[in-house]
Amino acid sequence: MTGSSPSPGDSLRRLYVAYVKYLSYNLPMTRLPASKARQQFADTLNRVVYGGERIVLARRGRDLAAIVPMDDLELIRALEDRIDLQRAKKALKEKGSVPWKKVKAELGL
Question: What pTM, to 2 d.p., does this model score?
Answer without folding.
Answer: 0.58
